[in-house]
Structures are given as C-alpha cells and as structure tokens.
Amino acid sequence: MLSPHHRFAIEKEKLWKGLPERERRILVEILGQDIQTPMRVMDIILCANLGSQATIHAALTNLQRAGYLRYTSYRADGRSKFISLAPKSVSLFKRLDKLLIACSQSAQ
What we know:
Blueprint: H1 4-16, H2 21-31, E1 39-40, H3 41-45, H4 53-65, E2 69-74, E3 77-85, H5 87-106
C-alpha cells in the first residue's frame, strides 16, 4: 500500500500531465502573486530561475493557447500586459488542493 505522500505525488502528476515543468513553475509563480498587485509579463521574465526571456515568452504563449493564462493590457501603457490565471488553471489548482486534503486526511 502506498503512503499518502506517494499517493499524492502520483496523483499530482496525473493532474499536471501534459504541462512541462517550466510551465508548471510559471503557473505556481502566478498563483503565489498577491491578488492586490497583478503580475506583469515582465515580472515573470525577471524570475531568473525560470529561464531566458525567449524561453519564458514561449512558455507563456503555450500556456495562453492551452487556456491556462489570460492577458490584460495595461491602460496607461498598451505595451505592458498583466497575467492572470484563466478558469482552467483555477480548476487545476482546486483539484490539487482537494487531492492534498484527501491524502493528508488518509494519513491520520
């Protein structure tokens, strides 16, 4: 029988299936952002641990096309864009939360 930790690790991978590690990390970075301070594309690019500017732009484009991200233009400067999680991402994180709770409760 698998421990709750192992079960969570296995089931978590099923939920993330199809998303490369870098794109997962970008979504987690956006999720961790303060809701009062929207994240800009430049904020993600400045996260040195995510890769080069071109690599991050490609990952952001993939996430938007897959329905995980939304862009909103900044009114004062049309060149600057805000990033937010699309409903598909919110749903993914809710399922991860439920999975974590279920696994932690089975450990008790």
